[in-house]
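We emphasize that the prediction below concerns an isolated chain of 447 residues; any contacts that depend on oligomerization or on bound cofactors are therefore not represented. The input was used exactly as deposited, without trimming of termini.
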Amino acid sequence: MRIKNFDELAITPFHRTILEALQVGLAAADPQKVVEKVLQRRDSRLSITGDEIELRRLHVVGFGKASVGMVKGVINVVGDAVQGGVAISPFYEGRIGPVEIVKGDHPVPGENTLKSSRRLLQYLEEAVEPDDVVLVLISGGGSALFELPEDDIELSEIAQISKDLMRAGADIVELNTVRKHLSAVKGGKLLRKIRAKKVYSLIISDVVGDRLDTIASGPTAPDATTFKQAVEVLRKYGLWKKIPARIREWLERGVKGEVPETVKPGDEVLKKVRNIIVASNAISLEAMAQYLEAKGYRAVILTPYLEGEAREVGKVLAAIAKSIADRGYLASRPAALLAGGETTVTVKGNGVGGRNQELCLSIALGIHGYRNIVFGCMGSDGVDGVSPAAGALVDGSTVEKALEKGLDPLKYLENNDSYTFFSKVGLAIMTGYTGTNVNDFVVGLIF
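Result of the prediction step, given as a token string:
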């Protein structure tokens, strides 16, 4: 995974170092490599982070943006031992060894998702025996790519309820509380459809905080939420009377205990599964920090939990960098600041941009005049908002150079037009789709 315009952006050794660090972060989240790292073959046995199993009957199923790379990793290590499988991808159809790759819909689940999800479950039902082992490969986008509604609920109805909840201001936990109780595969329910004695879920996290019950809505993880809480969420946001009557009836039956709950902590079915996070924002940040330490920087990981309005977070990051530059607070120079997570943008303008570029534009305004500070911000999936860029690179002279070209950075920020700004000043980071997603990276150097 390489930044396509690396050489154009690497105008100084400091810019080059930031770009190299970002590439290290991407490499640490490479789907194929992380799977190959966690699976170690020893003749007829397979070691999975300490567990050893006999390589007799192994099956592979998966869903998410990184499905293809993860399947390739499995096949490279134990291809001849894999009986078969089905994985759902948003971009690719075909076969990788004995594993069938089918296409799902993203970001909104549709007919492709339904068809592919049924195919995956059909494979589990027809091919997997009780003494077998199943690898479940889970990555970002899995919620949309793998879905089968409960009862006679329509997929379009779940999608509409999800949209209404998001518009009303529901957070991800509330949203998942409702979705899991309308789904036949989320909230640990996939485990009930796998007869195998042992299940290993290898997970690439695209969720801030790496909550197993939230990544792809936790198909193999326990869920502590209830039907009662799902109803309470819908009532809280004034949607209870607006949803279809049969969905209200389904949820009410759940509250009464007439239909099965999601898989709760302590459930017997959980004894056969081991959920393993193989890539995450924190893992990538740690790899980047090690790289920067080796280059002579005092690396400080601020947080992998970065959230908030991008332009406001940018102000804080700029302030921290200036505190190091001027006062040596937090770390002495040369220092490297690292952070990750997922900020948000409240769109009020009509420009083209994304949260990483908006974050970097805000940082550029905050560090204006500091010749010893450089920052890079990038989405690990290679797609930032509605732009073709992955992110941007800025330093203390970015604002000055823009003004010389007749560009007012503040106006571009106010119009949510960060990509237009960075494309004009030649500082947009271009990667194309990376095939993975562990949220966003921010790297700052203070020298």
